[in-house]
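Regression test case RT-17, inverse folding.

Input:
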């Protein structure tokens, strides 16, 4: 019973990751429809800011629409810690499920640009909150021997959610629903959001949170129910870690001695997005149409990309502790460079959609095998205990900020899929991403330490941190 309760609670909590992935990728099937639908609004907004650079371009405002969820994600990741500590992890996850539901329904019934963008921003708050609270909850209910595998359920479900979004878009696109097609693409997310909310009632409370609130007897009961063998030892470790966390609040973060891990976290998070990964996830249908694919075929190719992402993520999760973080990043970086250069060349020469699809399959496999598998593990390892939470927050903020920047600027840089010169614009953009991955390869070779099998305290000493 204890094993079933543990696994059930971890799986249910990780459904926040599935909604995370779904919400992130679902807009790819509808963003061009939204561009046409709100074109008049974009032109009006652009006219207000005529002569003020990007603000005076309709592409900027479409990027704003597409990235509205990402703005919410940045805020959600930043703000989620406080309710997680005051309300509890499980209750906070329940409120995030409500936000997912409100966002799905609001996006589906949106009556204008403002209502749609606000609904998407609400969904972004849920995504950002889930990226913080979900892994914390799973880690806090899991015994040490299985913590890594159970927390990895979150990453698996994020990638699975991306695949489900692409598949859902493809199925809805084949149903010939006409002008309301895009509404269904967003609205279907309400079903898994409602299921997530209801299933959470069967989850246990976090023992660590209970100890934080002085409810030690309840924490003991839950640890016993979860099958913890050394309950008293675990309770003492929880108490000591809480004392350390309280102490770390007084520890300044931006200090010279933390410069190396701060720089490593910033660079790996920045390069993660400069690969263009979220340009592909958000604009996959547009990109494949730029390469000459029909609308339904473009949606099917997005499904193939999502399936490749899932399969390679499972492979990378299985070997990361054996193969090593740096080696995965080296392989991924080379794959990035080759695939992005191939896509840029295909767009430049008009070589055809088949080569673009092949290039993107190698690209998504390279991402899943390298950055996708490594980034959060690596960032969690390179900071000392006393500032680890702050280091993870820095990495998360950098990641989401760059994600918003890439997603916001992509439609400005490539224009509409059917516009003259769209393919050449795509060639330049993907050539830029390829150049950024050359810089990432240099970063990995010259700066990135290998942390596989190295004790956290040893990593700290190697970076010159006492």
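Golden output:
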């Amino acid at each position: 019973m204890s094993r079933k309760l543990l696994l059930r609670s971890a799986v249910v909590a990780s459904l926040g990751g599935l909604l995370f992935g779904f919400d992130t990728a679902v807009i790819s099937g509808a963003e061009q429809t939204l561009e046409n639908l709100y074109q008049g609004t974009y032109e009006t907004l652009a006219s207000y800011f005529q002569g003020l650079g990007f603000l005076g371009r309709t592409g900027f405002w479409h990027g704003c629409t597409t990235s509205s969820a990402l703005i919410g994600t940045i805020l959600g990741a930043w703000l989620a810690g406080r309710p997680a500590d005051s309300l509890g992890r499980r209750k906070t996850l329940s409120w995030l499920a409500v936000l997912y539901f409100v966002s799905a329904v609001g996006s589906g019934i949106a009556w204008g640009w403002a209502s749609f963008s606000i609904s998407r921003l609400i969904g972004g708050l849920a995504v950002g909150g889930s990226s913080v609270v979900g892994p914390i909850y799973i880690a806090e209910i899991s015994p040490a021997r299985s913590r890594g595998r159970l927390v990895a359920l979150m990453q698996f479900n994020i990638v699975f959610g991306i695949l489900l979004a692409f598949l859902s878009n493809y199925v809805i696109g084949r149903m010939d629903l006409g002008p309301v097609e895009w509404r269904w693409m967003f609205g279907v997310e309400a079903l898994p959001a409602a299921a997530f909310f209801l299933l959470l009632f069967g989850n246990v409370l976090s023992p660590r949170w209970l100890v934080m609130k002085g409810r030690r007897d309840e924490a003991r009961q839950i640890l016993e129910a979860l099958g913890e063998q050394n309950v008293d030892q675990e309770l003492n470790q929880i108490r000591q870690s809480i004392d350390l966390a309280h102490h770390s609040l007084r520890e300044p973060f931006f200090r010279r001695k933390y410069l190396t891990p701060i720089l490593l976290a910033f660079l790996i998070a920045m390069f993660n997005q400069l690969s263009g990964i979220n340009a592909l996830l958000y604009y996959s249908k547009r990109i494949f149409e730029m390469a000459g694919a029909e609308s339904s075929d473009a949606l099917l190719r997005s499904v193939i990309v999502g399936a490749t992402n899932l399969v390679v993520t499972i492979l990378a999760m299985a070997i990361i502790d054996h193969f090593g973080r740096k080696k995965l990043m080296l392989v991924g970086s080379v794959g990035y460079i080759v695939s992005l250069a191939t896509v840029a060349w295909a767009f430049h020469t008009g070589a055809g959609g088949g080569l673009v699809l092949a290039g993107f399959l190698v690209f998504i496999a390279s991402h899943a095998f390298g950055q996708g598998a490594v980034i959060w593990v690596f960032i969690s390892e390179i900071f000392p205990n006393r500032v680890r939470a702050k280091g993870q927050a820095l990495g998360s903020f950098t990641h989401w900020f760059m994600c918003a920047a890439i997603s916001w600027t992509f439609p400005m840089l490539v224009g509409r899929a059917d516009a003259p010169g769209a393919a050449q614009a795509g060639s330049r953009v993907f050539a830029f991403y390829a150049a950024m991955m050359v810089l990432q390869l240099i970063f990995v070779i010259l700066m990135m330490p290998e942390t596989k099998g190295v004790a956290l305290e040893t990593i700290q000493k190697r970076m010159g941190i006492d």
